[in-house]
Amino acid sequence: MDSANWSDQPAVHYLAPAVTRSAKIVVAGAFGVGKTTFVGSVSEVTPLRMEEPITQASVGVDDLRGTPHKTTTTVAMDFGRIHLLDDRLVLYLFGTPGQTRFRPLWEGLTEGALGALVLADARDLEGSHEVLSLLEEQQTPYAVAINVFPDAPRYPLHEVRQALALDPDTPLAECDARDRRSCVYALITLIEHLTARHAPAPLVEPRP
Amino acid sequence: MTGPRHDPDMIRPYVRTGGQNRPSRDVRLETVLIAASGPTERLGPDARRVMRLFAGGRGGLAVADIAAALELPPSTVRILVSSLMDSGHLTSPAPVQEGRPGLDLLEEVLRGLRELV
Ligand SMILES: Nc1nc2c(ncn2[C@@H]2O[C@H](COP(=O)(O)OP(=O)(O)O)[C@@H](O)[C@H]2O)c(=O)[nH]1
Ligand SMILES: [Mg+2]
């Protein structure tokens, strides 16, 4: 609030004038899996932060002003962006923990998203179930990338697939969230999957 | 995880948006805005802060960029921006497409990402 920034002109990175389209991908996963690192590796600006205060009321009130028995939690989301195709297109990446208790926020985030890339840590595959079930519930298509930490066990991918209860056609890759190329390849894997879902279905006679 | 899967008591914060609590049009975090025209003297303080970001034609910003720059909750910025589009102060060069993104957008993003590696 009390800012030393007297100029009232924050350092803002404007989009290229050629931009005519935008798209968004959600980078989801449990705490500490490397979401912020991933977003920062791909983004051409230092990841920015948004904060949404979420009020949790203890009783079913519909007016928040001055009503007691409430706690406010702030949910932070990092995001980054990258201009593509000679600046005609800008792609936003939103990093989010995707917890069930922040469901209203999560819906605004995935609405209109191309899909989600779920980062997982092989040391804690259990920690990915919450975000996977949220995405499935919302019918947001996703791919999974194991962010490889040096001290993490390297399980065969088919075992990881089983542990995460992934559909056979859900892409599962490995990545290093600190490495830009590796992150871009993980995103390509996701988009290829999303594109394939749009492939025309084989012609079948409509059922009567 | 034994807690309830759905918490019905989750409600959005009251926001300073002139009494509105949801956007009047489909404005998303990635919706790109550019300045259009219109006098700004009758706007509320937060709307004026938004418009000040666009002064001088320095370029476009998405809703998320505005939220980060002004340190406002994204839900608030979505409402402010939709009002500013209704009043003709802001416009989007990239109108929101309803529903899930189409194949053409996916293919463009794919092409763009492949150019990077
Ligand atoms: N060794 C290694 N460390 C990583 C990697 N990705 C993230 N980290 C570290 O893990 C920690 C958590 O990463 P962060 O991106 O903040 O996770 P977030 O909570 O999902 O946003 C940070 O200290 C990172 O520097 C990775 O691929 N390899
Ligand atoms: Mg983070």
Automatic annotation (TrEMBL), chain A:
Entry keywords, A to Z: GTP-binding, Hydrolase, Nucleotide-binding
Domain of life: Bacteria
GO MF entry, a single one: hydrolase activity
Database matches in InterPro entries: Gliding_Motility_GTPase, Gpn, P-loop_NTPase
CDD domains recorded: Ras_like_GTPase
Alphabetical list of Pfam families matching this protein: ATP_bind_1
The keyword Nucleotide-binding is annotated on this UniProt entry: yes
Family indicated by similarity: Belongs to the GPN-loop GTPase family.
Name of the protein described by the UniProt record: ATP/GTP-binding protein
Automatic annotation (TrEMBL), chain B:
Highest taxon above the source species: Bacteria
InterPro entries: DUF742, WH-like_DNA-bd_sf, WH_DNA-bd_sf
Chain positions covered by the region annotation Disordered: 1-22
Signal peptide range in chain numbering: none
Composition bias type Basic and acidic residues, residue spans: 1-10
Pfam family, one: DUF742
Spans traversing the lipid bilayer: none
Name of the protein: DUF742 domain-containing protein
